[in-house]
Structure formats: structure tokens, C-alpha cells
Design a protein that fits this description.
mainly alpha
Length: 219
């Protein structure tokens, strides 16, 4: 490895360390209360070094948001493609993914949700992410409905699918009055109802070893 390659590797490593430290700072202190000082304390790196790699705090927070969404997407794809054997199961197990663990990073995601009301850049990333996600869900619903000869409003059903997940997820994080298993069973029963399937035929957890993978392990 030549000097230029080592420099690039060091740059990427430092940026990654700072991004992970930022996520930890947000988890502990919240989005608004995370500062260069709290991030510096989490990373063990100086304020000056942080400024060398990122323009300012908002720039670093935005990078951290994009980084987290990419890791969550990787986790989602891994679970769905490992567990599902057909299009229906991809839709089914995809709805269970938000309720399969990594509670600390749910709290971080909630802070980013809140920040999207205050930070236009975060809101834009969130809109892009959700638009792409809903488009994929709608396409899968339309394909399944056609395959099974069902009359389904794919747009409304995709909206219900995503909003039901969001509502259950938000209540799970904020209220702590029900658990992941309850959410997975609700999603399973609802999706099976839409597509005329017997929910008893399907497990209430994606049929893979979830202990071997987590969002944390992908950071």
C-alpha cells in the first residue's frame, strides 16, 4: 500500500469513527444537544480534528444520518433475502424487520425523525428514503395482487403498510407498553388478511438466526 492509499484509508477510518461517535452522542444526548464537544468526548478525538474532516456539526450530523440509513438498509436486505423464498414472504418479513432488535438505534432514529422537522437537509434525506421505500412496497403489492388475481388498491395498501409499521414502531419506542413480538404478529396477520393467506402458516419471526446479525454489527 503506497502513501496515498494509506492516507485515503486513514481518512475513511477517521470519518467512520467520528460518525459512529456522533450516533452514540445522539443516542445519549439527543440530536439538538449533541455538540462538537459531546462528539469529541465519545470519539476521543480533538475538536480541531473533527473540524478537519467535517465542515461543521450539522455536516457531521447529516453524514451520520446517511450512514445510519445505509446500515439499516443493509440489515433490511440481509434479513429479507435470507428469510424469504418468494415475493409474498419478502413483503411479510420486510414488515417484521423494524421489530427484530437493536433498540438503541431505534432511539437514534427517533431523534433523527424529530430533527427532520427542524433541519431541511435531514428532512430531504428522510423524504428520499421513504419515497424509495414506499415505491418498492407498492410495486411488490401490485405484482402480488396481479399474480393472485386480487383487486387491491396498491397505492392505498402501500401507504397502510408503511404507516402501520411507523405507528407500531413509534409506540414501541415511546410507550414501551407492548413488544416486538406483538408488532410482528400484527403485521403478519394484517398482510395475510390482505392477500387471503392463513397467518398460521407463517412464523412470527423471520426464519433466520437473527443473533448472528444486527445493525450494531454493521457499523
Amino acid at each position: 500500500m503506497n502513501r496515498a492509499e494509506k492516507k485515503i484509508l486513514t481518512l475513511e477510518t477517521r470519518r467512520r469513527e467520528l460518525i459512529i461517535a456522533t450516533l452514540e452522542s445522539i443516542r445519549k444526548h439527543g440530536y439538538i444537544n449533541s455538540t462538537i464537544n459531546t462528539i469529541s468526548a465519545e470519539s476521543g478525538l480533538s475538536r480541531g480534528l473533527i473540524s478537519h474532516y467535517f465542515k461543521n456539526k450539522d455536516d457531521l450530523l447529516l453524514y451520520a444520518f446517511r450512514f445510519l440509513t445505509e446500515r439499516l438498509d443493509e440489515y433490511f436486505r440481509y434479513v429479507v433475502h435470507s428469510a424469504a423464498q418468494n415475493q409474498f414472504e419478502k413483503l411479510l418479513y420486510g414488515a417484521m424487520v423494524p421489530f427484530t432488535g437493536d433498540r438503541p438505534y431505534r432511539e437514534v432514529w427517533l431523534h433523527f425523525w424529530s430533527a427532520s422537522r427542524l433541519q431541511p437537509e435531514v428532512a430531504e434525506v428522510h423524504r428520499e428514503l421513504w419515497a424509495t421505500y414506499r415505491k418498492g412496497v407498492r410495486r411488490r403489492i401490485a405484482s402480488l395482487a396481479k399474480e393472485r388475481g386480487l383487486e387491491i388498491d396498491d397505492n392505498a395498501t402501500a401507504l397502510m403498510y408503511t404507516q402501520l409499521i411507523d405507528g407500531l414502531w413509534l409506540g414501541l419506542v415511546l410507550e414501551n407498553t407492548y413488544d416486538d413480538l406483538t408488532c410482528r404478529r400484527i403485521m403478519r396477520d394484517w398482510i395475510c388478511g390482505v392477500f387471503k393467506e392463513d397467518p398460521r402458516k407463517y412464523p412470527d419471526t423471520p426464519p433466520i438466526d437473527l443473533s448472528a446479525i444486527s445493525v450494531q454489527s454493521m457499523l
